[in-house]
Each structure stands twice: as C-alpha cells, then as structure tokens.
Amino acid sequence: MNTAILEYPYVIEFYNIVNNKLESNNCKQNAVRLAYRDLQRTLRGFGKCSEKESIKRELYTLIENDYEQLLLPNINNELNIRRQFDIWHKTLCEKCKKVFDGKFNFTYGQAQKLINMFCKICIW
Question: Each residue of 30-61: pLDDT tens digit?
Fold first, then answer.
C-alpha cells in the first residue's frame, strides 16, 4: 500500500469501514457478501421474503463455487479467455435467477450486477 495516501483521514476512514465489514480472510466470501450488499438496494421487498436466508446462503455458495470453474480451464489465448468468461458469466446469471425462481422476482440485470461486483471485488 502507498503509505503517502494514509496522510488523508478520509482514506483511513474508508479503509477502516471496509476492513470492519470483512468477516474472514477468505476473499471469495468477503467479495460475495460485499457484492450482495451493493445489490441489496435493488431488491425491494426481499426483506419480507420468508425464504430470504436460505436463498442468500444458496446464492453465496453458488457464486463462490462457480468462481472456481472460471479459474479451472486451460485457456491459451485472449479470444478464448473472453469467450470463456462470457459463457461463464451468462451461465452464472441464469443459475442465480433460478435460485430465486418462484420465490422472488430477481431479474437478469440484478444477477449481472451481483456477479460484476463480485468479480470487481475479487480482482481488487
């Protein structure tokens, strides 16, 4: 970390806020939790869903486990990497929607947001 940025109090405050939201040293668990928190504001009425906790657990597990699938293939060129990522992303969006099927109206766009935020946090 660049120690010069620590001179700014708002940077330290931001770091402490993010650090306090982390529950473990597991990057994938933290990434999926933080990505879900970002998505939460778009899930109007989900708090009243009777299956909320089981849906969240299933969704977290799905994303954490599916991320491993993205890392497994032996891809040897950039075009194939992009193609493989696009296929993985689309498939995971569809799987996320199925977790909510019949329980809550979860859109494809919401699934995309969740996965995109997860990837940004994992890479960051």
Answer: 888 889 988 998 999 998 999 999 999 999 99
Whether 35 and 118 have beta carbons less than 8 Å apart is answered as: yes
Residue 56 has a CB neighbour count (10 Å cut-off) of 17
Beta carbons of 118 and 67 less than 8 angstroms apart: yes
* Distance, first Cα to last Cα, the chain: 13
**Which secondary-structure segment (H or E) carries 22?**
none
**Look-up: residue for tokens 């293939």?**
73
Residues 6+ away with beta carbon under 8 Å from 59: 32, 36, 96, 99, 114
Within 8 A by CB and 6+ apart from 56, the residues are: 36
CA 98 – CA 66 distance, rounded (Å): 14
